[in-house]
Specification:
heterodimer; A: alpha/beta; Rossmann fold; 12% strand; B: Rossmann fold; 2 domains; five-stranded mixed β-sheet; globular
Chain lengths: 281, 306
């Protein structure tokens, strides 16, 4: 039987991968001249850790039954996923240049029908966690040990459907479900704390009976430790509250709401890539 | 002739299918006693998921189950289910999820509970989604056949069922073929097309309209609509009358009108049903009379046609 264990890259190796992915994200966004840099850069360390440290995956077979699943509920952050899939050898790196172009598999928001390894078509916020729950339920029914990881935006959890799933996943004892909240405190109309404050986030999820861990979402040691701990849960689903920085890694984008959904121009890309040299992540 | 609510036929059929097909799972949102999914829940508790009063989460969860090899049937009242349109649109429709949406309490036939519990726009909503099959069977046999079809079909299906009893119309499950209207009577130059609960009304009306020898059609599949049959009727009929317990905007009447507009039908299309308004409390028979699509009203309206 085929077996594709997690890559378990070291912290230094993960840093190198995410640095390269950051460069790919900005390059593809500049090429497309549209897309969402802020939320892609806040999520990339989390996505890198999942695909290069934690998840079982055969990059040559998206339908391998024993794979772990990744659901990107914050669909607008998909450049982070595309960059990681290319780096992992799951899709051709050259495809990144087709992002958001007509006839491309790399849609502006992820499309499970067009692109392998996209487990759910998302972009209409608040739906991914329900889908991830359904996958986790099916895996339990089928007595599979695979796990499901769902990355959500913080603004996204203003959607009521998220809290319906927050209620139901503990009822079904889905300890194979790990939700990660990319808490970059930015959404289109402003800071999350101003648009519709979610705090106290950790207490809310704890009250819904989730195993909650709070981490720095840009610290690989913390991300890895949280993912390790989530494996030890006997009944509860895990919510990893990852405190992140929108636009992380590019000085002029960090914490700037304006960079939520605007692509860099050639000049800005050049400046960003200069900042994203090896050893400076 | 027996009579049975199509939700009851569903409850029995899905329980029977559960024995044959271990991939079938059923989800309900606190209405399992009403939708009759309770039959499945009792027989296969490990494959039944009680989701509470939270339909959007139920639908998204069903999508995830389907992506992992299961065949989920998602049950609630048609209005509550299709009311979560955005979740159905993206998590089911666009995702090509193999999810079966089962909406009971179709139309004014829901009765005393009144408008908020009545699915009178559900077919319109589901018809607007590419790839969605919309089924509205008229009796016990065809409902059983429709459930079996849904289970073996790959792709999303909306199955619309009644709260009220409907008289038996068909002798065999084999009468049902998805996408093919059933010709109950061949006629001359008038066609009566019913769907779901109105098929028996149309049949009753046809008895009183014997002198005009109408065609009688059971159009159980609203999408994909049987264009070939409608075109055939258009070629031979002066008048076509559609009858539905649903808003005439977006349901059977609209689907038929779309086909007729393509062939340049020179006759008249009369669309009976809920005339772009909201329903109310009452007995089904009273409501069908008041809203103009009981068998008597059908006879009356046909009589006005030259």
């Amino acid at each position: 039987m085929s077996n594709f264990p997690p890559l378990k890259l070291s912290v230094d190796e993960l840093k190198a991968v995410s640095l390269e992915c950051r460069r790919d994200i900005l390059t593809m966004l500049e090429k497309a001249q549209s897309g969402h840099p802020g939320g892609s850069l806040s999520a990339i360390d989390l996505v890198t850790a999942l695909f290069f440290h934690e998840m079982r995956m055969d990059p040559k077979n998206s339908q391998w039954e024993d794979r772990d699943r990744f659901v990107l509920s914050k669909g607008h952050g998909v450049p982070a996923l595309y960059a990681v899939l290319a780096k992992r050898g799951a899709i051709p790196h050259a495809d990144l240049a087709t992002l958001r172009r007509i006839n491309s598999r790399l849609q502006g928001h992820p499309d499970r029908v067009l692109l392998p390894f996209v487990e759910a078509s998302t972009g209409s916020l608040g739906q991914g966690l329900s889908i991830a729950q359904g996958i986790a339920l099916a895996l339990k029914l089928q007595k599979k040990s695979s796990r499901v990881f769902c990355l959500m935006g913080d603004g996204e959890t203003q959607e009521g459907q998220v809290w319906e799933t927050a209620m139901s996943a503990p009822k079904f004892r889905l300890n194979n479900l790990v939700a990660i909240l990319d808490n970059n405190n930015g959404q289109i109309d402003g800071h999350v704390t101003e648009v519709m404050d979610l705090e106290p986030i950790a207490e809310k999820w704890r009250a819904f009976n989730w195993a909650v861990q709070e981490i720095n979402g840009h610290s690989f040691p913390e991300i890895i430790a949280a993912l390790e701990k989530s494996r030890t849960e006997k009944e509860k689903p895990t919510l990893i509250l990852a405190r992140t920085v929108k636009g992380k890694g590019v000085s002029f984008m960090e914490n700037q709401i304006g960079w939520h959904g605007v692509a860099p121009n050639a000049e800005e890309l050049k400046k960003a890539l200069q900042e994203l040299q090896g050893g400076k992540s | 002739m027996g009579a049975k609510a199509t939700r009851d036929s569903f409850g029995e059929a899905i329980r029977d299918l559960g024995k044959e097909n271990p991939s079938i799972v059923v989800l309900d949102a606190d209405l399992s006693v009403s939708t009759k999914s309770v039959n499945f829940a009792k027989a296969f508790p490990e494959r039944f998921f009680q989701m509470g009063i939270a339909e959007a989460n139920m639908i998204g969860t069903a999508a995830g189950l389907s992506f992992t090899g299961m065949v989920p049937f998602c049950c609630s009242f048609g209005c509550f289910l299709t009311g979560k349109y955005e979740t159905i649109r993206v998590s089911v429709g666009y995702s090509r999820a193999n999810v079966k949406l089962v909406g009971t309490h179709a139309g004014l036939g829901t009765g005393e509970d009144g408008y908020t519990q009545m699915g009178t726009e559900d077919m319109n909503l589901m018809r607007g989604l590419p790839g969605m099959v919309v089924l509205n069977p008229s009796d016990d046999k065809t409902t059983r056949a429709a459930v079996k079809f849904a289970a073996q079909h790959t792709g999303p299906v909306y199955l619309r069922l009644t709260r009220q009893k409907l008289p038996d119309v068909h002798a065999s499950e084999a009468d049902f073929q998805m996408g093919r209207g059933i010709v109950l009577k061949t006629g001359t130059d008038i066609a009566l097309i019913g769907t779901g609960s109105t098929v028996s009304e149309v049949l009753k009306a046809s008895e009183k309209l014997k002198s005009r020898n109408p065609w009688v059609i059971d159009m159980h599949t609203i999408k994909p609509i049987d264009g070939a049959l409608i075109k055939k009727l258009a070629a031979t009929c002066k008048h076509i009358i559609t009858v539905e317990d649903h808003n005439v905007v977006g349901g059977l009447g609209s689907a038929v009108a779309e086909v007729l507009s393509e062939v340049g039908f020179p006759g008249k299309l009369l669309r009976l049903g809920v005339q772009d308004t909201y329903g109310e409390s009452g007995l089904p028979d009273e409501l069908y009379e008041k809203y103009g699509f009981s068998s008597e009203k059908i006879v009356e309206r046909v009589g006005e046609l030259a």
